[in-house]
Write a structure and sequence with these properties.
Elements lengths: L32 E2 L6 E3 L2 E3 L2 H9 L5 E2 L3 H8 L4 E6 L1 H5 L1 H18 L5 E6 L5 E5 L2 H15 L2 E7 L4 E7 L1
Helix pairs in contact: 4-5
Length: 171
């Protein structure tokens, strides 16, 4: 009778975060705080651009401090965490409709989370569009919005080692 071998999963790979926690401050900043770059307010351990956050900050009796938020630090570093590639004949014909849809979706996303920002908006040679985003979630959200509004084909690619998302939309 053969002895049972212990289970080993050779296909599992551990996610590696090369930042090693350097992207997080050692302690939570004092509340309330306001970012001079984007106007986001830090209340209840969360950065927000919503008007409700400003009201919550006004209700606190503590003095307001000025502090650069994580979104502005990420914008200053210029390192994108997501890309959206848009191309195809449909995009060339309906570019005037698609670009405002993307800009409106970014504004809705920024109301939820100030980290959702566009770092670069550039035209490609073949008539396409490349958008570099500050978070991988924003690139996914933009791809989903295009798919919902105009159908087409969306592909998602992720690099878990360096927290990068590529989203391709074509119709």
């Amino acid at each position: 009778m053969q002895s049972a071998k212990p289970f080993t999963n050779r296909t599992f790979t551990k996610r590696v975060d090369h930042d090693g926690g350097r992207h997080r401050p050692p302690r939570a900043p004092a509340e309330p705080a306001v970012c001079p770059g984007c106007g986001a307010v830090y209340v209840r351990r969360r950065w927000s651009r919503a008007p409700v956050a400003r009201l919550q900050a006004a209700r606190l009796a503590a003095p307001v401090t000025v502090r650069i938020c994580a979104a502005c630090r990420r914008r200053q570093s210029g390192i994108p965490h997501g890309y959206l590639h848009v191309d195809g004949d449909f995009f060339a014909a309906h570019r005037g409709e698609i670009e405002p849809l993307l800009r409106n979706e970014v504004e809705r996303a920024r109301a939820d989370n100030p980290l959702h920002q566009i770092l670069a908006w550039s035209d490609l040679e073949g008539g396409g569009l490349l958008i570099a985003t500050a978070t991988e979630h924003l690139a996914q959200r933009l791809g989903h919005a295009l798919e919902k509004a105009y159908d087409g084909r969306v592909r998602y690619g992720f690099s878990h080692e360096n927290k990068l998302a590529h989203v391709w939309w074509r119709r």
